[in-house]
Structures are given as structure tokens and as C-alpha cells.
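pls ignore typos typing on phone
farnesyl diphosphate + seq
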Amino acid sequence: MPLKLHEALDINLDEINREIENLVLKDRDVAARSPLSQGILELVRSGGKRLRPLLVVVGSRFGPKPAGRRTLQLAAAAEFIHVASLIHDDIIDGAELRRGEPALHMRTGIAPAVHIGNYMSARVIELLARYADNEQRYVHDLSAVATAQLCLGEYQQMEHAFDYNLTLEQYLEKSINKTAMLMATCLRVGALSSGCSNETADELYAFGEALGISFQIQDDLLDFTQSSDALGKPAGSDLRHGQVTLPVLFALEDPALAPQIRRIGPHSSESELAGVLEGIGQSSALRRTEAVSQSYLDRAAAIAERLKSHPAQSDLVTLLRYFAVRDR
Ligand code: FPP
Ligand code: MG
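k done
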């Protein structure tokens, strides 16, 4: 069995999980056994790789100070932001499943799920504002990403649903806002929490951004390559929902496929979709997408190379290896 990412990085997930749960358990305004508290605890205990908290901890290993409580609190905040965004995302996408289990809104109804997601992101902003005394202004970066960029990325995605004239630049911008910026910020904020220099923190940000773009591209690829069982949600969902991802952009360059793809709209039949999914699967689009994902990993590897003088650089190499062999 290959090591899990947190094992390969030698990070204690129990400590991080405790801080994540503390975000709601230590909120004196939320009653311990209230549906709000129970809903959040159930959700955060339902799994997840804790990738963003791990990035905060890895970032903290680049500074002179050992990772303390503040680093763990920032790691927990990053996961809360991520989980809150997924609650909203599943409502927006009409997704019934998350990680193979019913999505929160399927269990609670839409209005309670919206409020839970709002509470979680607001709670993070509340805490980050408290941490942000004069020396720790950098924590504002996390709340800025939480409030603005994720929402903007999601808005851009919605705005361009079924837009087959989407450009590569627009696709990348949306992917940065939706995914890469939070990952990059996690590394940077973690680094600054341990007294790392701004220069190194900025390099880590650039590394995280490249890694995040590669991650989003791979995620978009999985929708075409994985079974519904492996995905924990119906395969081909992105295309069905009008998301013009990188494989679709490449397939649109194929004169035989383009007209079929352009016909896909909100009311297309399952058989029409299946035909297009098969066409994209047999085209060169998936291989080309994989190559772009790899080029961002190469970009991240070049940045990691520049950070070689830091002992923690080996963690960046571990991240790169993990992202290269991520479940396809
Ligand atoms: C997953 O996308 C979703 C995101 C990475 C971000 C979604 C952001 C929002 C809904 C904005 C609201 C945010 C807050 C903090 C209130 P996906 O649908 O491509 O991935 P999936 O396959 O995991 O659903
Ligand atoms: Mg989704």
C-alpha cells in the first residue's frame, strides 16, 4: 500500500482534525448538540484528504519557528473554507453525492445547507480577523480568498456554462480562482506563520498555484476517464452541466467533434451526451489535457528546485510525486 499523503509528509492528521472540530465546538454561540454543530461535525468527519491543511503545515516548515498552534488553526480554517465552498458547490451543481455519500443539502434540505455553509465561512473570517494583529496581517489573505476568489471562480464557471467559445485564458483564470489560489495561499500563509521571508513565501505561493492548476486540470480529466463509482458521482457530470473544461476545449478543435459538442445544451438527451463523451474519449483531447497538466507540474518542479537550500524542500518533491500519480 502506498503511503497516504499525510504519512509521506509525516503530518499528524489527528491534531489538524481536532482544530477543525474546535472551530465549531469552541464557538460559544453554537449549542453543543444543535443540528448546526452536529451537521458540521458529521460533515468534517466524513473524510477528505485534508490537502489544504497539509499545505499550510508544509509551508510552515520553511520558516525558522516550529509549527505551533497558530499554524494548526490556520490549517483548520483552510479546511473549513474548502468544506463550506463544497456545500455551496453541490447545491449550485445539483450534485446528489459527495464522496459517494448524500451531499449535505440532500440530507438537510437546501436552506439549512446554505446557512451551514455561510456560517462556516463567516466563522473562519471571524477567527482570522481575531488572529490578524499587526504582525499577522497575512492571515487576511485566507479570508480574502474565502470570500472573494472562490465565489468569483464559481461565478465565472456559471457565467460560461455551455459557452463553447470560452478561451483557454478564461478557463485558466476560473481554475485559478476556484482552486489554485486557495492552495497557493495555504502554502504562503503557513510559511508566514513560521516567520518565513516574504521572498520564500512568494515562491511557495507560485509553487502552490502551479500545483493547483495541474490539480484542477486533472480533476477535469477524471470526469472523462473515471467510472461513476470511482468518482462517487455520475461520470460526465461536467459536460452535462455545461462546464467547458480543458478536454472539451481541445476536442472543440476537432472539426468532426466540434458540431456535436456545440449541440450539447441543458436539454440534451443521455444518449447524445454519451456519444459526445465517447468521441472526446477517443480523440487526442485527453492526452493533450494530460500534457498541459504535466506542464504545470513541471513549472512547480522548477520552483521547488530553486528552494533546494531549505530542508523542507523534500516535502515539495513529495507533493509533486503525489500529484503525478493521483488516482486517475
Ligand atoms: C468544486 O468544484 C468547487 C470549488 C473548488 C469552489 C466552489 C466555490 C463556491 C461555491 C463559492 C462559495 C464559497 C464560499 C466559501 C462560501 P467542482 O464542481 O469542479 O468539483 P467537484 O467535482 O468536487 O464538485
Ligand atoms: Mg461540483
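The beta strands are 97-98, 101-102. The pocket of magnesium ion (ligand 2) is lined by residues 89, 93, 95 (CB under 6 Å). more later
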